[in-house]
Design goal:
3% strand, globular, 12 helices, 3 strands, 320 residues, mainly alpha
């Protein structure tokens, strides 16, 4: 039952669907997505840590991207899984604010990490002779640190204003996690000025700035590739940044697709599920399929297991 103009201490998350016959299929789908995302990104993370051939700036930032994907997916999808198991869809007001804050912060940090990866690709292609000098371990750690700090600091005003709303028209959040837009729609506070401030900050600071920081290096990259005389050289140069460019395009398209177009394609909640799961799921696939370094590291990582299996079967043959 909806309630109006009251200060509340908890919310009820409606989820993707409240139809009983859809509960199990949705749970199994989300569980499969979540386990696939965890498995793919943890594999990338493990390979980057274990394989010394991947101890380079590009893979350092890729490891940061995998950590972000694991955290962001856990924030958005965990309530679907836990509510099915426990039957409890309630979240406290504080938990909801924390979820909303971490969702915004992780998303902003991911955009900044992708911008840092663009700079890394720019140096690799436009200044290859000084690549290791410019992209030193100290600079890489500093860039990653600044991305994480900036991402979590940038959204503090959003979280502050959101947590100080004094009343809501309903305790029911029509989403599968504490979406900021849903919470703003439920609030009965006067928010015209607040919406304007959030729109300005979201557009220019959280949106356009990371986009420009990502696109500008690629302008110089494209110009540098066009100056390469041989087609083989151009293909090789483009291939070094194709994985990152694919991820950038995928992320920005899903984030900034016009709302009317989203709703015409699929329901808003299903599109949000796609947005929450698609990029974290596809990142490891894109980097493992299109990146020779990751593929080689996977082969090296699987070689001991392959050798042990062969030894086991050879032993069985000897025994028989």
């Amino acid at each position: 039952m909806n309630k109006t103009n009251q200060t509340i201490s908890y919310f009820i998350i409606r989820g993707i669907s409240e139809l009983p016959e859809l509960m199990l299929p949705i749970f199994l789908l989300v569980l499969l997505l979540y386990l696939s995302i965890l498995g793919g990104n943890m594999t990338i993370l493990f390979l980057v840590i274990q394989d010394h051939h991947l101890h380079t700036p590009m893979y350092f930032f890729l490891a940061n991207l995998s950590i972000l994907d694991i955290f962001s997916t856990s924030v958005t999808l965990h309530k679907i899984l836990t509510s099915f198991v426990t039957g409890n869809r309630t979240v406290t007001f504080i938990e909801c604010m924390v979820h909303a804050y971490f969702f915004m912060a992780l998303q902003c940090t991911e955009l900044l990490i992708l911008a840092a990866m663009s700079y890394d690709r720019y140096v690799a292609i436009c200044n290859p002779l000084h690549y290791h000098m410019v992209m030193s371990p100290k600079l890489c750690v500093l860039l990653a640190f600044l991305c994480w700090i900036s991402g979590f600091v940038e959204v503090i005003p959003h979280a502050y204003f959101l947590s100080h709303f004094t009343c809501y028209t309903s305790i029911y959040v029509d989403h599968f996690f504490c979406s900021v837009l849903q919470l703003m729609e439920l609030s009965c506070n006067e928010m015209s000025m607040l919406k304007l401030l959030i729109d300005i900050e979201s557009t220019f600071i959280l949106g356009l700035l990371p986009l420009f920081m990502t696109v500008i290096p690629y302008i110089f990259i494209i110009l540098a590739i066009l100056k390469i005389h041989t087609s083989t050289g151009r293909r090789k140069a483009f291939y070094t940044c194709s994985s990152h460019l694919t991820v950038v395009i995928l992320l920005y398209v899903t984030l900034y697709l016009p709302p009317t177009l989203k709703e015409s394609i699929v329901s808003p909640k299903l599109f949000s599920l796609f947005n929450a799961a698609a990029v974290p799921l596809l990142n490891p696939l894109i980097y493992s399929l299109k990146n020779t370094g990751v593929r080689s590291a996977m082969k090296r990582g699987l070689k001991p297991l392959h050798d042990n299996i062969n030894q086991f079967f050879n032993f069985q043959k000897l025994v028989c």
